[in-house]
Write a structure and sequence with these properties.
It contains 16 helices and 18 strands. The chain is α/β, with parallel strands linked by helices. Bound molecules: S-adenosylmethionine (SAM). The site of S-adenosylmethionine has 22 residues, from strand 1 and strand 3.
């Protein structure tokens, strides 16, 4: 959009840019074209633009793919956007509060925007949450924030947000934009950053909740040494520092994101766990083998049970919170079955000599790190399409937070049942089949 066009659009709408909404409109068409070219959109690719404003980027993105969503907070622009881009979905909303879990039902997408500076961080945190199915994100940000996100350890720019966002996303600083390309002209430079999801295994595995807690604590007082800030949370800082190979005088910004991950996975007095090895360490597990009436007839290793299709037992647990949401886990990349699929809150096989309720209590402890009363919900018989498993389904009430072992669980998230229903209907392939079966059982049992 050229400057003259931008000005005439504003005057035809009888409006002026609003500072409190961070409205600095881009009027350099070449830049707009360059920014949208970085999105690598192919025809039909799904995208979402945050804060489209008068459509400076929208018109270029739409030429690449018409499968777009516009998320705009300014109610004065909603009618205009709907008329100008009738093929796109226009959502009137606040990107800081937008429920990104609703995006899962539509599958992978590209997210971008020239963000309003006053809420860039909140928007970034919302759109880099565990469950956002973005395959690429591109933002124009205040230069200072962009440099912080892409900062290297050991620099003053490296801060809490660098690590919190950088654990899951690789951040690349693409270019800086001068203030003059915007109307009104801001007092600061802007930079374009590209966020791509990190490949599984690129950084050491750890519990994301513990990582976030330690990073926030570590950066809460930058001048202090980590020993003073993290000693209590870690048990023994000197031991942790030695395991990481950093001096005990280290400060938060001197640790790389990889070292923060190692720290989150570290436990006093133990060698660092190799999640790949831990996940493989299951093949020798012994299960009870059962007959068609679910009576124990013998024992076999996990390997034999699965290899010879022997009937065996398993449990699933659905944990709900007071808001009625259900907690799902995404299985770790090292799982031999259904890696990185979404699954019940916790699930597992019944070990030889254990019963269903004992197993459910153990799995709740091992996979979510909590104890809670368990209520039996339903059962499913063993059949070919259930992997020859008798399954007992339990439910529990808990508010979290959970402690997720990285060898087992990649991450977890609460979902509203209706949201989950829409996602399941649209993309059953995102879920482990065992969960799909249990979800149907659960709905049936609840009428
Ligand atoms: N994309 C347009 C461009 O490049 O010219 C506008 C960019 S302007 C910097 C930021 C845009 O975000 C404005 O349209 C503003 O109304 C919108 N906005 C501000 N706060 C928002 C929020 N919380 N959620 C969604 N959009 C918001």
């Amino acid at each position: 959009m050229k400057l003259s066009e931008l000005q005439s659009t504003l005057s035809s709408l009888g409006t002026t840019p609003t500072r409190s909404l961070g409205q600095n409109f881009l009027h350099d068409r070449n830049l707009a074209d360059w920014i949208t070219a970085q999105l690598q959109l192919a025809p039909g690719d799904r995208w979402l633009e945050i804060g489209p404003g008068l459509g400076a980027l929208t018109e270029h993105a739409q030429k690449r793919s018409t499968n777009g969503i516009l998320l705009e907070k300014d109610d004065r622009l909603i009618g205009f956007l709907g008329e100008r881009y009738p093929g796109l979905e226009v959502v009137h909303g606040d990107a800081c509060r937008f429920d990104t879990r609703n995006l899962l039902a539509g599958g992978p997408l590209v997210v971008f925007g020239n963000l309003p500076y006053y809420v860039s961080s909140q928007i970034l945190f919302n759109f880099t949450a565990n469950s956002v199915p973005a395959k690429l994100q591109l933002y124009t940000l205040q230069r200072e924030l962009a440099e912080r996100l892409a900062a290297q350890p050991g620099t003053k720019e490296f801060g809490g947000p660098t690590a919190l966002i950088g654990r899951r996303w690789k951040v690349q600083l693409l270019r800086t934009l001068p203030p003059q390309v915007f109307l009104p002209v801001p007092t600061i430079d802007s930079s374009v950053v590209l966020l791509t999801p990190r490949a599984p295994g690129e950084l050491p595995a750890c519990d994301g909740g513990r990582f976030n807690m330690l990073v926030k604590l570590g950066f809460s007082q930058r001048r202090k040494q980590l020993g003073n800030l993290l000693g209590k949370a870690l048990g023994s800082w000197p031991e942790a520092a030695a395991a990481l190979g950093v001096p005990t005088t280290a400060r938060a910004e001197s640790l790389s994101i990889s070292q923060w991950c190692q720290l989150a996975a570290w436990k006093p007095g133990t060698a660092p766990e190799d999640p790949a090895a831990a996940a493989q360490d299951i093949h020798g597990e012994i299960f009870d083998v059962v007959d068609a009436q679910d009576q124990v007839t013998g024992q076999a290793t996990r390997h034999e049970v699965h290899g010879k299709n022997l009937r065996h037992r398993a449990i699933h647990i659905l944990v709900r919170n007071k808001a009625g949401e259900v907690f799902l886990q995404r299985r770790s990349q090292w799982k031999d079955v259904c890696p990185l699929k979404w699954d019940s809150s916790a699930a597992g096989h019944v070990n030889a000599g254990q019963d269903y309720p004992e197993t459910a209590a153990r799995e709740l402890r091992e996979e979510l790190g909590v104890e809670a009363p368990l209520k039996w919900v339903a059962k499913a018989d063993a059949a070919e399409n259930t992997g020859h498993e008798f399954v007992h389904l339990f439910e529990a009430a808990h508010e979290g937070p959970f402690h997720l072992p990285p060898a087992e669980v990649d991450c977890g998230e609460w979902f509203e049942p209706a949201q989950l229903e829409r996602w399941l209907a649209a993309r059953p392939e995102d879920f482990a089949p065992g969960f799909r079966r249990c979800w149907a059982l659960w709905k049936q049992a609840r009428g």
